[in-house]
Amino acid sequence: MNPDNLVQTTGEWLRATGPESDVVVSTRIRLARNHAAYPFTNRASPHQKAEIEAIVREKVAQVDSDRPLHFINISKLGQLDRQFLVERQLISRELANAEGPRAVVVDDREAVSIMVNEEDHLRLQVMRSGLALDEAWQDIDSVDDRIEQVFDYAFSDEFGYLTACPTNVGTGMRASVMLHLPALVLTKQIEKVFRALQKINLVVRGLYGEGSRASGDFYQISNQVTLGKSESAALTEIREVNRQIIEYERQARTLIIKETRQAIQDRVARALGTLQSATMMTSEETMELLSSVRLGVNVGLVTGLPITLVNELFLHTQPAHLQKLMGTQLDGEERNAARARYLRTRLKEAGPNPN
Amino acid sequence: MNPDNLVQTTGEWLRATGPESDVVVSTRIRLARNHAAYPFTNRASPHQKAEIEAIVREKVAQVDSDRPLHFINISKLGQLDRQFLVERQLISRELANAEGPRAVVVDDREAVSIMVNEEDHLRLQVMRSGLALDEAWQDIDSVDDRIEQVFDYAFSDEFGYLTACPTNVGTGMRASVMLHLPALVLTKQIEKVFRALQKINLVVRGLYGEGSRASGDFYQISNQVTLGKSESAALTEIREVNRQIIEYERQARTLIIKETRQAIQDRVARALGTLQSATMMTSEETMELLSSVRLGVNVGLVTGLPITLVNELFLHTQPAHLQKLMGTQLDGEERNAARARYLRTRLKEAGPNPN
After folding, report:
1. What's the predicted TM-score (pTM) here?
2. End of a domain among A204, A226, A248?
3. CA distance B29 to B46
4. ipTM entry
5. What average pLDDT does range A338-353 have in this prediction?
């Protein structure tokens, strides 16, 4: 499979079709798995990593799945294609920048992806639109079962799944929910929410993984603990917490509409006006403005603009996506001009109206 | 005459029909004059001020003029109407806020205005569109001659015209040119220009007189010296200096278009986009954005928007104008909403296009 096939689309998880999609963008669960007969990736020789890759290509990518799986050899991709897969959340930045044999297996809805020779031999991932922890869990559990039949998992009866980093030992599971929390940011309640999450060992990160800033008011909330707690207990905990945060965000949206309607209306109208008129636009500013527009759509201050399109614009204006869409490599200034042009064109087609 | 008659229009001087009107908004000359038989305004009793006012109403306002003159009794106007006349530059803020008998005489093109009982008994003013010092001088000299026949000027053979403040003694003349200098501001050359002007005793101020900030990149340049220098010498000096500044501004415009075209285009397009979409807008921000748009029109980055309309929007979005246009008193927040709505409507009618 060639990444070019994905350029015009978004993954299923970005379609805003799932539950609570006014606040929740997507749910993601990943499992860390390793082969019992090989040293962990950071200790494995290039030859051993190539063997792992071969097992994945010949066996894992061939397991009976709901939809066909495609094997992508990362080391054969150029820098732009690797960054493109990072932006789509199909691979990590670490895997993109690593050396030696490494790969990713994806299905054509981009619901399932399996990173090969990242920190662990396998990183299974399932993504779903909206808050869908149960469905994501059923999906990944089933994928995991089928892979287990062709890939000899490193497993200890005492500890559970063995992983390169001790923080993943046990279930090897990390469940993440990506939320759009513009009203909690605007009302300055977001820090309070985060402090509460830290106390119960949940991790909050920006859109693109560890250490990244929360561009566009997107936040990922994930479990931290993988040892001594079952998958279902961890999922229950993260589900409850997310239900609470969704409720807080909705209350904050109601509050700002009630108490500062004019200011919010102005903010949303200006964001839309700027996106429709600027001729130079950075990725960072795009995220900020689209965040205001997304809030506007969700609180009824903008009509004629589907959330699916807003989500797609977040993705398509990322640097690698933009260059793939334009069909050429662009430097920073050229990207800013191309991004502004792309946004103007797409928004003109949609013809949104501030209310 | 009722100020309401002026609401839908702009004075002739704002029509951008005069010479060099890409850079020069208007030319203004004023003469300070006093009656020989009365103490200066700050020493005059209310009764004496009323007598001055009566002479003006009965004689000065009746002199044979090109166009009919109208007498407006300031002390009978409400606060909003007084502020309205300040915004139109027909009276000073000082006269608006003063107490006691005071008035202004204007013609219906707003080319001539005569303030009564300001710092001096009479402040004659002539305004012209563009750089038109000679024409303005001919106008005011002729008005001055006709008034002199009905109003006994305080004049000393040794010093010239006697005025309340020694800085005006002599010719009593101040000539001001209002320039729009956005490119000199953008290229940070404006400070250098001002330092040069100070050395030759010229005064630089913002749009609304002494001490006011240079909102919208508008600057007034005036002569300081009224003693020991003839009117024609002062006018020659200020004409030469303005020709230079106009040249600098045009060079700066050429430079930014050549070297930072994309950035300027983006700035202009965003300004226009924000003016067309915001739902709340302060007067200060309006001036800034309209300044970018005015620059855009003058360098060919915006089409379909006459400078006359841009000039009119500068004036009509001032607080008192806005309230007169809406026909009601508005508080700050209401004004910001009304201003944004007015701008959206007027710009929609015009349908400008960023190039």
Report:
1. 0.89
2. A248
3. 28
4. 0.85
5. 92
